[in-house]
C-alpha cells in the first residue's frame, strides 16, 4: 500500500513517459485501443499518491474535523489543515486565513458573488468580465446584475482570441466595482494579462477576481504578485480529487464579508437569538467539509511541486506548439486561440469544417482518444466565434508528442470515414 511511485523525483526535466507509470488509468484500453486522454481541461487524471491517500484516509484516519478531542479527530484535522498550508504556499505564500475550501471554482465564485457582491454591488455599478468567460464566471454575475440593477461590460477578444486592451479605460471606468477575468481560457487557451487588469481595476477602486481553474494547474501562480483580491481554482484539474476548490481572498476583504452558508463550524458563539461568526477561514466553511478529498489534494500539490511548475509549463508549451503545428497541416480544420504558445496554455479547440464536433469526438473515442466536444461551458464565446460547438484537445503532464501524432492520424481517418476522402 505504501508503494507510491516516485519515479518523477529522479528527473529534473519532465518526462511524460516516466510520469505515466504514476497514473494507473492511463493503462486502460478504450474500445480496444490504448487510452489517449486529451480532456485535461475538464479534469485531470490522478496519480497513485492521490488515490492511495484517499484510501489511507478512510482506512486509518477518518473522523470529523475541528470537533473532537480524540486522536482520529486530531489527525484528520491536522491533515485537513496541512493541505490548506500547502495550498497557501503553492499560490505564492499567502496566509492560511486567506484560503477557503469550497467545492470547486464554481462555488468559490458564487461565494464571492453572494457574500461580497450582494453587499457591495448596487444599481448603476459596473461589473467587468471578458468575452471568453466560463459560465462559472458569468452566470453568478448575470444573476447579481439582474438582482441589483448593475451593468455588465465585456472586454472583447480579437481575431487571435486575445483580449483587446486598447479601449480598456472606457470599459474599466470609475463606476466599476469588480473586474472578474479568467487567467487562462478553457476554450482558446489564452493567458490573460491579469496583473495589468488588476492594476487597472484598482486604479478605479474596483476589486479583481481571477478565475484560475485553468491556470493554477499549468502555470506558476503568485496571487500576491498579480495583486488579485480573489482567486479561485479547483483541485480536480490539477491531479487532485473532485469536490475540492479553493477561494483565495485578501484577509481584510474576507473579514468584511458576510458568511456564505450558515450552520455548524462557521460560528464562534450561538444563543437562541444571536450568532457570532468564527474567525477566518472557517467563517466561510459551514458544515462538515469534504475532508477526505481535501486531505488527498496534498499529494497532488506535492507531485506538482516535485516536478516544478516551470517544468510543467515548459512541457505544456512544447506539446501545445507541436499540436498547433500538426493540426495546422490539416487544412480542413479551423483552430482557435493564439498561435504563439507564449500567450496560451494547452487547451486547443478546433472544428473540422465538414464534420460535426460531436461526430468527431465519437469517432476519436472509437480510436481510444478522449477529447471534448461542445460549447465547453462558454456559450457566449462560442457565439462570438461563430460556432455552436468545437472539439477540444487539452494536454497535461503525461501527454506525449506521439499522442498528438495519433490524434492527427485519427482526424485524417475521420475525414476518410465521414467525407470519403
Ligand atoms: C475557466 C474555468 N472556470 C471555471 C470552471 C469551473 O470549474 P469547476 O467545475 O471545477 O467548478 C472551469 C471548468 O472547466 C473552467 O475551465
Low-confidence stretches: 1-11
Total E-strand runs: 17
The number of helical runs is 15
What is the name of the CATH class of the largest domain?
Alpha Beta
Output the CATH topology of the largest domain.
Answer: Aspartate Aminotransferase, domain 2
CATH architectural arrangement of the largest domain: 3-Layer(aba) Sandwich
Q: Which molecules are bound in this entry?
A: pyridoxal-5'-phosphate
Strand content: 15-25%
Q: Main β-sheet: number of strands, strand sense, barrel status?
A: 7 strands, mixed
The helical percent reads 25-40%
| Number of spatially distinct domains | 2
Mean pLDDT: 96
Distance between the termini: 51 Å
* Structural class label: alpha/beta
Give the overall silhouette. globular
Strand arrangement across the biggest beta sheet = 4-10-9-8-7-5-6
Please describe what this structure looks like.
The protein is of the alpha/beta class and 421 residues long. It has two domains: 7-46 and 308-419, Aspartate Aminotransferase, domain 1; 52-304, Aspartate Aminotransferase, domain 2 (3-Layer(aba) Sandwich), CATH 3.40.640. The protein has 15 helices and 17 strands. The chain has helices at residues 16-19, 48-61, 71-90, 105-120, 139-148, 168-171, 194-203, 223-226, 251-255, 291-295, 297-307, 309-328, 357-366, 379-385, 401-419; strands spanning 29-30, 33-34, 36-37, 99-102, 126-130, 151-155, 176-182, 207-211, 230-234, 245-249, 267-271, 274-277, 333-335, 347-352, 369-370, 372-374, 390-394. Strands 4-10-9-8-7-5-6 form a seven-stranded mixed beta sheet, with helices on both faces. A four-stranded antiparallel beta sheet has the order 13-14-17-16, covered by helices on one side. A two-stranded antiparallel ribbon has the order 1-2. Helix 4 (105-120) runs parallel beside helix 5 (139-148) and helix 12 (309-328) packs parallel to helix 15 (401-419). The chain starts with 15 loop residues before the first helix and ends with a helix. 47% of the residues are buried. Residues 1-11 have low confidence and may be disordered. It binds pyridoxal-5'-phosphate. Pyridoxal-5'-phosphate (PLP) binds at residues 41-42, 104-106, 134, 136-137, 182, 186, 211, 213-214, 234, 245. Pyridoxal-5'-phosphate (PLP) binds next to helix 4.
Amino acid at each position: 500500500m505504501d508503494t507510491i511511485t516516485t519515479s518523477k523525483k529522479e528527473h529534473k526535466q519532465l518526462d511524460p513517459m516516466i510520469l505515466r507509470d504514476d497514473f494507473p488509468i492511463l493503462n486502460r484500453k478504450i474500445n480496444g485501443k490504448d487510452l489517449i486522454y486529451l480532456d485535461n481541461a475538464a479534469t485531470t487524471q490522478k496519480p497513485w499518491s492521490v488515490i492511495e491517500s484517499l484510501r489511507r484516509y478512510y482506512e486509518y484516519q477518518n473522523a470529523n474535523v475541528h470537533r473532537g478531542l480524540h486522536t482520529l479527530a486530531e489527525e484528520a484535522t491536522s491533515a485537513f489543515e496541512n493541505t490548506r498550508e500547502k495550498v497557501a504556499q503553492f499560490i505564492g505564500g499567502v496566509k492560511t486565513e486567506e484560503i477557503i475550501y469550497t467545492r470547486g471554482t464554481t462555488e468559490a465564485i458564487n461565494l464571492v458573488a453572494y457574500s461580497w457582491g450582494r453587499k457591495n454591488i448596487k444599481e448603476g455599478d459596473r461589473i467587468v468580465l471578458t468575452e471568453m468567460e466560463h459560465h462559472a464566471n458569468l452566470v453568478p454575475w448575470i444573476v447579481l446584475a439582474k438582482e441589483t440593477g448593475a451593468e455588465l461590460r465585456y472586454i472583447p477578444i480579437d481575431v487571435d482570441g486575445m483580449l483587446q486592451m486598447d479601449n480598456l479605460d472606457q470599459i474599466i471606468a470609475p463606476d466599476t466595482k469588480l473586474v472578474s477575468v479568467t487567467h487562462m481560457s478553457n476554450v482558446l487557451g489564452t493567458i490573460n494579462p491579469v496583473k495589468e487588469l488588476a492594476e487597472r481595476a484598482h486604479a478605479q477602486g474596483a476589486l479583481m477576481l481571477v478565475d484560475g481553474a485553468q491556470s493554477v494547474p499549468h502555470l506558476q501562480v503568485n496571487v500576491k504578485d498579480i495583486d488579485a483580491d480573489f482567486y479561485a481554482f479547483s483541485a480536480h484539474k490539477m491531479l487532485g480529487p473532485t469536490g475540492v476548490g479553493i477561494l483565495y481572498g485578501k484577509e481584510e476583504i474576507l473579514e468584511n464579508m458576510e458568511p456564505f452558508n450558515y450552520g455548524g463550524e462557521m460560528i464562534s458563539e450561538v444563543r437562541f437569538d444571536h450568532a457570532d461568526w468564527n474567525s477566518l477561514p472557517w467563517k466561510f466553511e459551514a458544515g462538515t467539509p469534504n475532508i477526505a478529498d481535501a486531505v488527498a489534494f496534498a499529494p497532488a500539490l506535492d507531485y506538482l511541486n516535485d516536478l516544478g511548475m516551470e517544468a510543467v509549463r515548459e512541457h505544456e508549451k512544447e506539446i501545445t506548439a507541436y499540436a498547433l503545428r500538426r493540426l495546422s497541416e490539416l487544412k480542413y480544420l479551423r483552430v482557435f486561440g493564439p498561435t504563439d504558445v507564449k500567450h496560451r496554455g494547452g487547451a486547443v479547440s478546433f472544428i473540422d469544417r465538414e464534420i460535426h464536433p460531436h461526430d468527431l469526438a465519437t469517432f476519436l473515442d472509437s480510436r481510444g482518444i478522449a477529447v471534448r466536444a461542445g460549447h465547453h461551458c462558454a456559450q457566449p464565446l462560442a457565439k462570438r466565434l461563430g460556432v455552436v460547438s468545437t472539439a477540444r484537445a487539452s494536454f497535461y503532464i503525461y501527454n506525449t508528442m506521439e499522442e498528438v501524432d495519433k490524434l492527427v492520424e485519427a482526424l485524417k481517418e475521420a475525414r476518410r470515414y465521414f467525407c470519403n476522402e
